Structures are given as structure tokens and as C-alpha cells.
């Protein structure tokens, strides 16, 4: 990468003062297009692509055309690390608890659930068409969009579409596509990603032919580097180990010889000697060498399967350039969720709240976007629909659970001061690993999690449906190996934190981390008042739990500004402010707690404990002081 935050800060400050955006190398950048000259948008989405196993480094065309010529959002997150729920959140701008699409198959997820929830009349392509765009899509839209239901009804909102259909969506050499309202066609023997590329070029030609009258949105979604899946039965709430065979992705013949010596990065949390986490993860066995060798081969095939996608990026860019519209086009590159192989003893798969599964690629190139820039502004998939609509000059919806992502460097600078610090992560149902080993269906893989990142703090806090808890401090424990929450004493809020020095994590360690010393002081100044730093972890976890209490059922602005729910006066903006000792009793004694009454396979709100957090201040009876108490709205 050509630049990091400090140098980009200075460049962005100059831009804010002089009205010019500069690249990381000092070259002047074109300003964003005005609404009167609306941009084209190309949106490329891989499937299950990792960020933390370094897969982007094996995509030279991506680096040349997007990473080096655009901005990388290093703290971009999905809010559900599973294909279909993540994609529905992306296209609707709503968290999974508000879409109620929480699985890849019925009854809790998939295309039929998307239809039944009414989203075929309320998602991005329709809004873009209302804004005057032609819209095209090629590849995987949603799971369980099948050869027997694709027209019940057809997916709305597309000027042109060519969807991959189940049960052959993930078969690299046996894909089925369905174009516009035509019958499905099998492409047996043809390499799926190459077929996606050819169809993408065709729709791009159509879009370019009409560009003088309408701008276009082109979505491209191959299945790489997802594993190869052969379904054996139609699934409707009864997924078993025999429902499908999930094997490594199949590379194209021309790429089979690549990366023979590459292995999964051997990070500290790769196949550790001791298990960690809670629930079923805490019982995973250490993998033997045969298992590891197979998984390394699985990883190599993932990298190989990405090569046709990388070649397609080159093809799209060259066609835009030849047509003279590259400088008028925003290009987004992302994936639906991350991936793990071997970390925490996991077999290949996703669905956890660990960083490998939720922190995912997002790279954007386009007018006014700095080249080679990396930003650590926190963003999520629920932000993408608002972002794309804003680029299109369309009005944003009040029911979005996300907010438009700042793209120009000057906007990124401003956003760094006000942008949300939190990511709401949620999961329901079962989990099964992919590959040859450990293909066991684990039940009760349901949890609510909070990933929060701010100045001098970085935590993952998770509450599972069996009411086990996890807390990881990623500043001292970046691989999330040491659970700070002693779940066997959770009712008493006692903790066994771990030290940065490998021993006991002291109060002084945590205090210094969150409130770094200034002239020998560990005090934190908040809202023009100087307050003492917290002395124990219980202060941290009580605030995180309350924030998660808001986020687990949030809607609209509650999702982007949850501290306003807890502190309506607006004097608490982040975790720093909330740790004022004035609020200790409120958070530790008076506030409701996140908990489950039952593990479910989908979003059943009655099984997820109390809803609605209390707002400061409250009296000893828990009643809001100085304002009428607003009862939480029931979620359907």
C-alpha cells in the first residue's frame, strides 16, 4: 500500500482546506462527479474470500487496477458471516435481525425467505432504477434461488440478469444459469467463473451502448473462492452431514500448476496447542499433519480459483477504458463474508465472530477517490446500499441500518472524527465445516456479538445462546486467543483477564491501554470533565453488554448511533465517554443484560431475552428520570 493514515490525514486536510483531493503519491485527483453527471457503478463480489489469510496478495490485476488506484477500507466488516444473510443485508441496508433472513435455506433463509419478507419490492436495484439507472447482474444473487423457484417470482429490479441457480450454484464445472426471464441453461463442462466473465462483458456492452441516456450499475458475483458443493437433497430446515458434499474449489485447467508451495499462514492461532473460545469451539481437537496437509491443499485451490476472477477484473477495466468511461465509473470490490482454515483449530468454513470471518475486503476506485490510500474508518455491509444510492444521487431511506461510507479522502478525514466505532454481528442456527475432516453439524451456533474499535481500544464481545460469554482485547491479543470473560462466574461479573506479558492481565495494563498516560497521568478527559480511568474489567463489560443490548434489536438510527439510546442527552458518543465513573451504577446494576432463554435455528425474538435498553438517568426503580419511559418496540 502506498500510504497509511498519518500521511493521508495531512493530504486530506489540505483537500478540505483547498477543495482538492490528492492521491497518496501527491498526484491531483478528479473531484467526485456531480449529480447532474451521475457515475456508472461496477460492483464485484467474490464469495467467502478471506482477508486475514492474505488472498488479496495473489491477485495482481486487483492490485494494479483497484488497490493501487483506489482506497482500501481495512476495517470493513460483514454483520453476519454467512452468504445469504450477508447478501440480503448488503442489498437492503438492513441488519439480519431486521430482514429476518438468517440462513442459506428455508425456512429461515434463502431466496424464498427474501421473497416472503417483501424485499423483492424493496432492495437496491429497484431503488437504482427509480434513480434512472440501468441495472445488470451476473452470478450468484442468493442461496436457494433454484431451478424450480427462480420464477416464483423472478428477482425484480434488473434491466438484465443472468443468475446462478441451485442446486448447481457451487459446481465449478456444472453450473446452471438463468438469463432474464428465459429458462435455465446448464453449462456442464464449462468453467463457471469464465462463463460469468463472458456474460459480464456482454452486459457491459449493453450498458455502454445506452450510456448516453442512462448510467449503469453492473453487479458481478462469481462463486470463487467458495468450496465446490454438490447437493444430494433439497434442504428445508433439515440440513445434515449427508445433505451435500463440500470439497475444495476446482481451479481452471490453466491455473492448476500455481502456488504449489503455498500454505495457510502459520499465525499464532493456527491449530494452537490448547483450545480456546466457548461452546462447541472449545472442544475442537488439534489437527494432525494429514488434516493440515489437506487443508493447505484446500487453501491453494482457493487461491487458484481466484485467478479467473482476477483476470476478469482486467477484462472489465480494459473495456471501461476502451469505451472512455473508466474515469466516470466507481468500481467496488468486496466479498460476502470472510473465511478460516485452521485458526482456532477450525476446519475450513465461516460463521464465527472472529476477525477472520467478519473483517473482509473492501476496495473502491473512482472519481475523487485517493489512489493507494488505506483507511481504518469502521464500515459494514449495511453501509453499502446507502453508499451506492448516494453515489447515484438518490434519496437515502430512513429505514437503513447503515450510513453512507465516506469515499473522498477529505470525507474520510471528517468521518474519522464522528464515524461509529461498533459493528453488530449476529448468527443463528447450525454450522458445519467444509472439506474432508470434521464434517459434523454443530447445533446451537447462535450468538450476538459486538466488535468495537476506537482510540486505544479494540474488543470483541460475544453472548452465545447457551449464555456463555467471550471477551477478547485485540490490542493485546490480536489473534483472539485469551477469553477475558470467566463465564463460570458471569453472574458475579468476575473476570480472569490475560496480560500482554503472557501472565495475569492487570488493571494497570487495561487502564494504560484505554487511557494512555499524558505527562504521567492516566486520566481521560470527556465532555470537558476529567474522570478517573476504570479500575477493573467489569466497567468495560457492563458498557459493552449495554451497547449490545441496543444493537441486537436496533432499527435505523439506533444502529448507527446506539449511544444516543443509552444517553439521549447526547453527551456520550463512544466507549471513552461511557466509562465515566458517574455511570457505573447505571451500567453495572440498573441496566438490562443480554441473554437467551433458548437456542433457536432462526430469529425468534421471544427466545432472545429482554429487548430494549434503559436510558440514562434512571431512578432506583429503573424508571427514566425527567422523561417519559419509552417501552421497546416489539420486533416481528
From TrEMBL:
PTM summary: The conversion to 3-oxoalanine (also known as C-formylglycine, FGly), of a serine or cysteine residue in prokaryotes and of a cysteine residue in eukaryotes, is critical for catalytic activity.
PROSITE patterns: SULFATASE_1
SUPFAM superfamilies recorded: Alkaline phosphatase-like
Enzyme class: hydrolase
Signal peptide: 1-23
Biological processes per GO annotation: phenol-containing compound metabolic process
GO MF terms, alphabetically ordered: arylsulfatase activity; glycosaminoglycan binding; N-acetylglucosamine-6-sulfatase activity
Occurrences of domain Sulfatase N-terminal (ranges): 39-394
Keyword field: Glycoprotein, Hydrolase, Signal
Catalytic reaction list: an aryl sulfate + H2O = a phenol + sulfate + H(+)
Family: Belongs to the sulfatase family.
Name listed for the protein in its UniProt record: Arylsulfatase
Organism field: Anthostomella pinea
Amino acid at each position: 500500500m502506498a500510504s497509511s493514515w498519518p500521511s493521508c490525514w495531512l493530504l486530506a486536510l489540505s483537500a478540505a482546506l483547498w477543495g482538492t483531493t490528492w492521491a497518496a503519491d501527491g498526484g491531483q485527483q478528479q473531484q467526485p462527479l456531480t449529480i447532474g453527471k451521475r457515475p456508472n457503478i461496477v460492483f464485484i463480489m467474490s464469495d467467502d474470500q478471506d482477508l486475514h489469510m492474505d488472498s488479496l496478495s495473489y491477485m495482481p490485476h486487483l492490485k494494479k487496477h483497484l488497490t493501487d488506484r483506489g482506497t482500501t477500507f481495512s476495517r470493513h466488516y460483514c454483520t453476519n458471516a454467512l452468504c445469504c444473510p450477508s447478501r440480503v443485508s448488503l442489498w437492503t441496508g438492513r441488519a439480519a435481525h431486521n430482514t429476518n433472513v438468517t440462513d442459506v435455506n428455508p425456512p429461515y433463509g434463502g431466496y424464498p425467505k427474501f421473497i416472503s419478507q417483501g424485499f423483492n419490492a424493496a432492495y437496491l436495484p429497484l431503488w437504482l432504477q427509480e434513480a434512472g439507472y440501468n441495472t445488470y447482474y451476473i452470478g450468484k444473487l442468493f442461496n436457494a434461488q433454484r431451478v424450480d423457484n427462480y420464477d416464483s417470482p423472478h428477482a425484480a429490479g434488473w434491466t438484465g440478469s443472468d443468475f446462478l441457480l441451485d442446486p448447481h450454484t457451487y459446481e465449478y464445472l456444472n453450473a446452471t444459469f438463468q438469463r432474464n426471464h428465459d429458462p435455465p441453461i446448464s453449462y456442464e463442462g464449462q468453467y463457471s467463473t469464465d462463463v460469468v466473465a463472458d456474460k459480464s462483458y456482454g452486459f457491459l456492452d449493453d450498458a455502454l451502448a445506452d450510456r448516453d441516456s442512462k448510467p449503469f450499475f453492473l453487479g458481478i458475483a462469481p462463486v470463487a473462492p467458495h468450496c465446490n458443493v454438490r447437493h444430494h437433497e433439497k434442504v428445508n430446515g433439515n440440513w445434515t452431514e449427508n445433505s451435500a458434499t463440500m470439497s475444495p474449489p476446482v481451479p481452471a485447467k490453466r491455473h492448476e500448476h500455481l502456488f504449489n508451495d503455498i500454505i495457510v499462514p502459520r499465525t499464532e492461532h493456527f491449530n494452537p496447542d490448547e483450545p480456546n473460545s466457548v461452546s462447541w469451539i472449545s472442544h475442537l481437537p488439534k489437527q494432525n499433519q494429514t488434516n493440515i496437509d489437506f487443508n493447505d491443499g484446500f487453501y491453494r485451490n482457493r487461491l487458484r480459483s481466484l485467478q479467473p476472477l482476477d483476470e476478469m477484473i482486467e477484462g472489465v477495466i480494459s473495456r471501461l477504458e476502451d469505451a472512455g468511461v473508466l474515469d466516470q465509473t466507481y468500481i467496488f470490490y468486496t466479498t460476502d463474508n470472510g473465511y478460516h482454515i485452521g485458526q482456532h483449530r477450525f476446519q475450513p468454513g465461516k460463521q464465527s465472530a472472529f476477525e477472520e470471518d467478519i473483517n473482509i475486503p473492501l476496495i473502491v476506485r473512482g472519481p475523487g477517490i485517493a489512489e493507494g490510500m488505506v483507511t481504518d474508518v469502521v464500515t459494514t455491509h449495511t453501509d453499502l446500499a446507502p453508499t451506492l444510492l448516494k453515489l447515484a444521487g438518490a434519496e437515502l431511506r430512513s429505514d437503513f441500518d447503515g450510513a453512507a461510507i465516506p469515499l473522498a479522502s477529505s470525507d474520510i478525514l471528517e468521518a474519522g472524527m464522528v464515524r461509529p466505532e461498533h459493528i453488530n454481528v449476529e448468527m443463528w442456527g447450525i454450522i458445519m465445516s467444509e472439506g474432508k475432516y470434521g464434517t459434523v453439524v454443530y447445533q446451537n451456533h447462535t450468538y450476538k456479538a459486538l466488535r468495537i474499535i476506537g482510540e486505544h481500544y479494540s474488543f470483541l464481545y460475544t453472548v452465545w445462546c447457551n449464555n456463555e460469554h467471550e471477551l477478547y482485547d485485540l490490542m493485546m491479543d490480536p489473534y483472539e486467543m485469551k477469553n477475558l470473560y470467566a463465564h463460570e462466574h458471569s453472574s458475579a461479573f468476575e473476570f480472569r483477564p490475560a496480560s500482554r506479558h503472557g501472565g495475569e492481565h492487570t488493571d494497570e495494563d487495561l487502564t494504560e491501554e484505554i487511557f494512555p498516560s499524558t505527562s504521567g497521568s492516566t486520566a481521560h478527559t470527556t465532555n470537558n470533565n476529567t474522570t478517573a480511568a476504570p479500575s477493573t474489567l467489569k466497567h468495560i463489560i457492563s458498557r459493552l453488554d449495554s451497547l449490545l443490548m441496543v444493537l441486537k434489536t436496533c432499527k435505523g438510527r439506533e444502529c448507527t448511533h446506539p449511544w444516543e439510546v443509552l444517553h439521549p442527552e447526547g453527551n456520550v458518543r463512544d466507549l471513552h465517554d461511557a466509562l465515566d465513573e458517574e455511570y457505573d451504577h447505571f451500567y453495572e446494576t440498573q441496566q438490562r443484560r443480554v441473554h437467551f432463554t433458548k437456542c433457536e435455528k432462526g430469529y425468534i425474538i421471544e427466545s432472545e431475552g429482554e429487548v430494549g435498553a434503559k436510558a440514562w438517568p434512571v431512578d432506583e426503580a429503573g424508571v427514566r428520570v425527567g422523561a417519559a419511559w419509552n417501552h421497546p418496540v416489539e420486533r416481528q
